[in-house]
Each structure stands twice: as C-alpha cells, then as structure tokens.
Write a structure and sequence with these properties.
CATH class of one domain: Alpha Beta
Strand content: 5-15%
Helix content: 25-40%
Shape: globular
CATH architecture of one domain: 3-Layer(aba) Sandwich
Radius of gyration: 22 Å
CATH topology of one domain: Rossmann fold
Structural class: alpha/beta
Largest sheet: 8 strands, mixed
Strand order of the largest sheet: 7-6-5-4-3-8-10-9
Length: 409
Amino acid sequence: MKFMGGRLSLFEQDFIKDADCTKDTPVIYGKEDAPIYGTGIKLKPRIPGREDSEHMKKIYLKELFPLEEYDFIAVLLSGGKDSIACYYKLLELGAPKEKIEFWHHDIDGGHPLRRMDWRCTKEYVKAFSEAEGVPLRVSWRVNGFFGELYRIGASEPVEWVEPDTGEIKQCRLSQNYIKCRELKEKATEQMEQELKKYGYRMKFPAKSGDLSRRWCSAYLKIVVADSVMSNLDKTRENVKVLVVSGERRGESKGRSKYNEMEIHRTNAEKKARRTVHQWRPVIDYSEKDVWEVLKRHNVNPHPCYRAGWNRCSCAMCIFSTPKLFAGIKELYPEDFELLKKDEEILGFTLDNKCDLETFIGGAKSCVYHGDKDAVKSLVTGSFSPDEIYVKGKWMYPAGAFHGAEGGPC
C-alpha cells in the first residue's frame, strides 16, 4: 500500500493503462514463464489482496494451492486475447491440458431471431478448443441477451453442453421460474401483471460499474458460470477447482482494483465439499504483454481485432464508441435497424443519453478492410480450426493499441 494524494491506495499504480499502451511499450510481464507444475510451489499475488471491507475479507486469498492440487482448471474463454493469454500462461507453467477445460458463455443463448455477439465467436472458440485439444464447455441463459432484455417474469434457465457427450443439461429451475411457467400455461388476462411480480426488465444494461444495473455481465456471464459450477456432477464430491479469468487492471478504473486471487463465489467447502479459487493471471499485464503471448504462440486473434476493434466483447457492446457502432451499422445493417427499433419499443436508449443514430453522429466506421478474411468471418460467422494459427509472419491486428498498427480505431 502507499499514499497517493493524501489517500491510502490499496494498489501500487505501476500497471500500464490500455490508453497509454503502444506497440513500443516494453514487454514486462508477458515473457515466457518457467514450469512449476508438480514442484509444490504456491503462487502468490504480486499485490496483496484487499481487506478493506467485510466482503473483501471474506474472499481474501493470500495464495493459491500448488497448481497440481487442483482437480480441474476452468479457463473462462471469451475468445478475446486476455483469456487466451491466461490459457497459455497455464501451459507455460506446466499445467497439463488434461486438467484444463475451456468455459465459454454464449451471450445469445440460442435466441431464434436475434443476436448481440459476433456471429463467428462460437466458431472461433470451438476452433481454438479443437486446435489445442482442450475440452470446451459452452453454457448460456436460454434466449440470451434479447430474452433477458424483453423479460417479464423470472429469468430463463441456464443450460450447458457436456464436452464428453454433447448432452445439453439444465441447471436446477428456480421456484420463481416454475411459478411463471405455470402462469404462462394458464394464459389468463391477468398473466402479464402476475408475471411482473416475479421480475421485469424491458431496458438496456446501464453503462455502469454496478452489475445490478449493467445486467448483461451479471445475468449472461457471471451467474451463468456460477450456476453451471454449482450444478456440475464433478463438483459434488470433495474437489478443488481453479477458475481462471482474464481481467486486467489496465482495462478500466474498476478492474484496476480487482484482486489477482480470491475465494470464488461458488466455494462451498462445508455444504458441498467443493473448494473453488479464482485466479486472474494476467491482471497486471499491459496490452503489449498480452499480444506478446499470442505472438509467441502464433495465435490468430479473433476476427474483430483484425477488422479494427480494440476489444472483443459483444459486437454491440453498450460501451462501444461511435466509430465502433458505425462499424456495426456497416457490417450488420439489419441488426442495427432492429436495435434502433428496440429503442423505440422500450422507450429506453442503449446509450445513457441519446439514441443510436445521434450517438454515432458523423463518426466514420472503424472497419478495416485490409484483412478480408476477418471481415468475412464477422459477416458469415465462419471460422475453422486450420485458421487458428498464423501462417507466415505474425502481425499486430488492426485494432491493437487502438489502431497503432494502422487500423482506424
């Protein structure tokens, strides 16, 4: 800890913000790791975890178990560069692939008509899983983003696909969901009012650090992962699980305060004999550090980076800039028009202050057409395992460093 501006700071401010990172930034943490798996070494955070509230004290974790003591490691794989870098860090530390599972949360949840995410993300993640020979566990909330956006009543259930069998499994249904299902089956004139007693959404996520208002992260990612972890057969015995995720301090002010290691929300040592820890292994990495890892392993980044986007979140993420939404308007004109209609129907804009057209204004599209294969993947949704590794010289994608390599973002 140290004092900054007369206030006690819990973290040394020596990480590099993404806004300040360029292709010339030195590689600090992204260098190749030495193997430690099987040596009994306990990894410790670079910066001690927070204990500034009762909640933070409760989840405080001063060190991990030796990696070999965990029964399995769940890498939360979004398809973005940071989660991929986490995976390769585990490999470099010596963790065997047999201990690792990729966990991907499908934001769209099989909605029959609408999508919020990139069309190729599921195929990209699947291709990466096949290329690396690591099992992939895909999970989702039924009907995804748009099902939750237009929700009246309880949220839809969470499902996942078992990697070994391909079987679709469903998490235990909540009592509220069961009651809402019964109300829908009766279909009375009072049904909608009765359903509202169990929940009501009808508004876009807020651009806020408060996850109760920025519900997309909470309901479509965090709760989905937690529900699957709590419902897995393999976690009902006395097991130790390590959840690995790719948040970095340089991404935002909020993430700059995250712990590197902590006790995971699904930890239930007494009730379910399940120990679950969380590790954010690239939390101190700069963007340059992360790209160095992908370069070292010759990984072809997600097509959105190559087409000019600097972040690999949802295609129509609420935090997108005017240039990024202009890119969406160019690539997905029909989806963009439907999103504008959503604003009219809901009476609630995606941006906090104005409608989409006003938000974009005169901004030029961010799409970089120099990588035709990337643009094709974004439009068609296609991506195959033989595209995962770069053929020839590895180059920074157009969206790296906000376009530092020639991309327009």
